[in-house]
Amino acid sequence: MNRLALIPVLVSLASVYPTAQAPATAPATPxxxxxLKDAQGKTLGEATLRDAAAGVLVKLDLLNVPPxxxxxxxxxxxxxxxxxxxxxxxHFNPTTMKHGLLAAGGPHAGDMPNLFVPADGKLxxxxxxxxxxxxxxAKSLFDxxxxxxxxxxxxxxxxxDPAGNAGGRIACGVVTR
Length: 177
Fold this sequence. Notes:
The chain is mainly beta and about 180 residues long. It has one domain (about 30-175): Sandwich (Immunoglobulin-like). The protein is built from 1 helix and 9 strands, in the order H-E-E-E-E-E-E-E-E-E. It has a 4-stranded antiparallel sheet, with no helix packed on it. A 3-stranded antiparallel sheet has the order 5-8-9, with no helix packed on it. Strand 2 and strand 3 form a beta hairpin. It is globular.
């Protein structure tokens, strides 16, 4: 068939069908961030958090972190007072579950997989936490006292309650909008 013969057909079809309208834009996805600092106030990383269909996606960029395995948790209070960051409270746990991704009756909402930092101390990674949200509600990281991201000295064993034997808190960042 001659391509030029199709032009009148396409023009007539275009006049019959209404112009398609772009769908209404969805509301902006709530986003948050946290700057992780060590006990001396040195920045060790930046995190961006974004609501996703299945939870909150945490994009983490670390620099100058001791190499090896580290636990990363969301803690229940948006406060990061040095030197030990204990003001961040325990793990975010609005549904009162047991600690650990492998524990019966777990995990805490703030439990996330361990990170492995290479020898150069740099790591960029995305982690999905399916048990939290940035929107309003019981699992919101923006409850009355906020929340914090905490990087621990060692790996989480995914089972020991209440904190997985993850060692000291080496960096902390308050989650903010």
